[in-house]
Design brief:
Elements lengths: L5 E5 L3 H13 L5 E5 L11 E4 L2 E4 L5 E2 L9 H8 L6 E2 L6 E5 L2 E4 L4 E2 L2 E2 L2 H4 L26 H9 L1 H16 L8 H4 L1 H7 L5 H11 L9 E4 L4 H11 L2 E3 L4 E7 L2 E6 L6 E5 L1 E4 L3 H8 L4 H8 L2 E13 L8 E3 L8 E6 H4 L9 E8 L12 H16 L8 E13 L4 H15 L3 E3 L2 H4 L3 H19 L5
Parallel strand pairs: 1-2, 1-16, 2-12, 7-18, 16-22
Antiparallel strand pairs: 3-4, 5-11, 6-11, 7-8, 9-10, 13-14, 14-15, 17-20, 17-21, 18-19, 19-20
């Protein structure tokens, strides 16, 4: 009788845990799954904490309800698999704003991450160029072509649309600049449409039509009790052995699989596995790949990341607008790039004592000196800038929390998807029992990370000989 498979998952974020759940569901009975997490905490950027006696997210806040094709997102499917779907809640206030010329203006409707499908709707915030978006008689993108989002939108609609709409929206997600970020990776639906459509407005409308949303259907969801419940439930359902404070320092090929060097240099532990899922950021993955696949390591290690800080203030009875929050274009000259009115946006978080939770995001790629401020100075600056944006002095917080995420958000330059595809193809050709998964390769957001982990698990199952299903 053959011995059970042994699969090692390096990284205990939601990507690695989703891979572990999929392995448990699809791999043969008895498969030994071990998750190695170098820190003492699972979940990666999913972290629910407490502030002023109530729950608050110190990392990711929510997930998309739909996938790009219009079906249920991978995050929703995972929540359902973990019997958490009854806990899914949606924003009670959906309208967000942009800070433009020092004042808040509603984010115009009909856009795709700020790229307009109706030029009239955005004119009050960012008037497109007079000769905008003329049909040149050919598709916007050639087959296989990728370019920066900012370049495409500037050429078609002018600078104002990029600087006042697209850049702050992309910056809110990636902490990067539209002029540097890949269209194919950050806006894949628009990229697909642009290979057929001759105008950018036409491409936006085609992308929206390809994934229709029922009127009133929620776009985002989160879990009552916090997103850490997703992490805990996935860890339990996977049946995996969870190794916290277990840094994997080296990965070597053996005649029968892989050998992991785990733990401190002075007292290392050597662990053998039949297959490995690397569900860690690109640079740690590249270090582990260096001995087994140097060329792939070079490609993976070239990905850069942005660092951010999330500053949450618990404010006693502030005068807040009925908005979910607002985005800040870089041209406004503020430290904050986005703010969320948590207890306004999420009805289940509203408190009977009138305490409001407001969170601001600080840090843009290439301009991260602000993150060198102390926690006290960051919190004070955020309160001052929020007060200016709202036109009213916010009260002193009764509590505050500063969460720093160093190297948290991947920066996908044009050609990223093709580079990752080539790296994975090369890796599968030599080492099919070694898979890459996570935001560094496939994009940000909980659904993308879940799907990435699940896909890596399926690749491992195929490489080892097929599933039990």
């Amino acid at each position: 009788m053959a011995r059970p498979w042994r699969v090692a998952i390096v990284g205990g974020g939601i990507t690695g845990l989703a891979a572990a759940v999929r392995l448990r569901d699809r791999a043969p009975a008895g498969t030994e799954i071990t998750v190695y997490e170098q820190s003492g905490r699972l979940g990666g950027k999913l972290r629910t904490g407490e502030l002023a006696g109530g729950p608050v997210e110190f990392g990711a806040e929510s997930f998309l309800m739909r996938d790009p094709a219009g079906g249920e997102s991978a995050a929703v499917t995972l929540a359902r698999r973990l019997d958490l779907d009854a806990r899914i809640v949606h924003p009670t206030v959906g309208q967000a704003a942009l800070l433009v010329d020092g004042g808040l203006r509603p984010v115009p409707g009909g856009t795709l991450v700020g790229v307009p499908g109706d030029l009239e709707k955005v004119a009050a915030v960012a008037r497109p160029a007079a000769d905008a978006d003329r049909d040149a008689g050919r598709p916007l993108l050639a087959p296989g072509e990728d370019l920066a989002v900012g370049r495409l939108v500037r050429e078609r609609l002018g600078d104002a649309v990029v600087d006042r709409l697209v850049d702050p929206m992309l910056g809110g997600v990636y902490a990067g600049r539209a002029d540097d970020l890949s269209l194919v990776t950050t806006m894949p639906a628009l990229a697909r449409a642009a290979r057929a459509e001759h105008t950018l407005v036409g491409a936006v409308r085609a992308a929206q039509a390809a994934a229709p949303r029922a009127p009133g259907a929620p776009v985002f969801g989160t879990l009552a009790g916090g997103l850490s419940t997703l992490v805990e439930a996935a860890a339990t359902a996977s049946g995996a052995t969870i190794r916290r404070d277990a840094a994997v320092r080296e990965l070597r090929r053996t005649p029968t699989g892989w050998r992991l060097t785990v733990g401190p240099t002075r007292d290392p532990e050597l662990v053998d596995a039949d297959a490995v899922v690397l569900a860690v950021p690109a640079r740690p993955a590249a270090r582990l790949l260096a001995g087994a696949a140097a060329e792939v390591a070079d490609t993976v290690g070239g990905l850069d990341y942005a660092s951010v800080a999330l500053v949450t203030l618990a404010l006693p009875g502030p005068a807040l607008p009925e908005l979910s929050g607002f985005l800040v274009p870089a041209g406004e000259g503020l430290l904050i790039k986005a703010a969320t009115f948590f207890t306004t946006k999420w009805g289940h978080l509203r408190r009977p004592d009138g305490l409001a939770l407001v969170r601001a995001s600080v840090g843009r790629y290439g301009d991260e000196t602000s993150l060198q401020l102390t926690d006290d100075d960051l919190a004070a600056t955020v309160r001052r800038e929020l007060s200016a944006a709202l036109g009213t002095a916010l009260p002193e917080p009764v509590a505050r929390h500063v969460q720093r995420w160093g190297g948290a958000l991947p920066q996908y330059t044009p050609g990223h998807a093709a580079r990752v595809a080539a790296a994975r193809t090369a890796l599968r050709g030599v080492h099919p029992t070694l898979a890459l998964a996570g935001a560094g390769y496939d994009g940000v957001g909980i659904p993308v990370c879940v799907r990435s982990g699940e896909t890596a698990a399926e690749e491992i199952i195929t490489a080892l000989g097929g599933s039990a299903a």
